[in-house]
Amino acid sequence: MRFLIHLALMITVALGTGFGLSWYALNDGRLLGAVEIGPWQAWRDVGVPGPDPYTRAYIARSGSLELGASEGLQFTATLDSDNRRLDRNCRYRIDGTTPPARFWTLVPVAPDTGAPVTRPGGPTDFHSGRLSRAPDGSVELYVSRSLAPRNWLEIAGEGPFDLVLTLYDPSSLSGAGANVAALPSIIREACA
């Protein structure tokens, strides 16, 4: 009798662990196939001819048309640099340097739909051709509902949001392909 109880317990643990890891890999899987740089995350094998199984699951799950490995690289931030969820009631400063790329965009989007959360009728994104830089080449961008200095993008609505940073043709200037060493930090300054 004791043997049967241990056997049933082992089978339950094995099935729970197996199904649990499979569910995680298919529904998230970032620990297995994504790269993290500060609060930013990207799937490193998106756009290559033979992606790993976790990246394939991500592509199938998202249903989006991804850039090729030499065309660009997309980073997403759901948290600020202090690991707090990005919230539309707060003002954020994106501070630092952007990796070398021919062109880049930064878009605040809704986490469930991917639609921009900016004010209707206003600009929907920051891009490398529409901002002022410091003399050292660094950027200081603000994303908030309230007015902020210099480079400011007004967001609307309530609830959480994500920031999507897309680097287009990163190999054209760096010669290193999709290797990115540092990305700007995301600093929460104040909340309403």
Question: What topology emerges from the helices and strands here?
Answer:
Layout: H1 2-27, H2 30-33, E1 34-37, E2 40-43, H3 53-62, E3 72-77, E4 90-96, E5 103-109, E6 126-127, E7 139-144, E8 151-154, E9 162-168, H4 171-174, E10 185-191
What does it look like?
- With 192 residues, the protein is an alpha+beta fold.
- The protein has one domain (34-191): Jelly Rolls (Sandwich).
- The protein has four helices and ten strands.
- It has helices spanning 2-27, 30-33, 53-62, 171-174; strands at residues 34-37, 40-43, 72-77, 90-96, 103-109, 126-127, 139-144, 151-154, 162-168, 185-191.
- The protein has a six-stranded antiparallel beta sheet with strand order 1-2-3-9-5-6. A four-stranded mixed beta sheet has the order 8-7-4-10, with no helix packed on it.
- The model is unreliable at 172-178 (pLDDT under 50).
Task: Give a short overview.
The protein has 192 residues and is α+β, with helices and mostly antiparallel strands. It contains four helices and ten strands.
